[in-house]
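seq:
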Amino acid sequence: MRLALTAALLAFVSAPAFADDFTSLPPGPGRDVTVKVCAQCHSPEIVASQKMDKPGWKALVDQMASNGAQATDAEFDTITQYLAASFPASGAAPAAAPAADPAAAAATTPAPAPAQ
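struct:
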């Protein structure tokens, strides 16, 4: 019993962080991959304070890969896309998270003003 309790405690303490633990990372395609890969070495939330264009994010992701980040090329591309959309360079608005239901998105879009 004691061994099982110790094993359960170690599994809980050493388990990777869940994507929902990082509230400063907006939802969007690639968020889960970003959390999985970046959390290997540091808090994924460190990116939330940075704003870059896509080439800037690609350079940073490439640097992390050179530093030993473990992911496939496709995952690194997904991370770059997510970061560029979620944390764009100053002056650019972050991309909105895709609506789960297109009808709901249409319902929240204001109708155009009538022509006068």
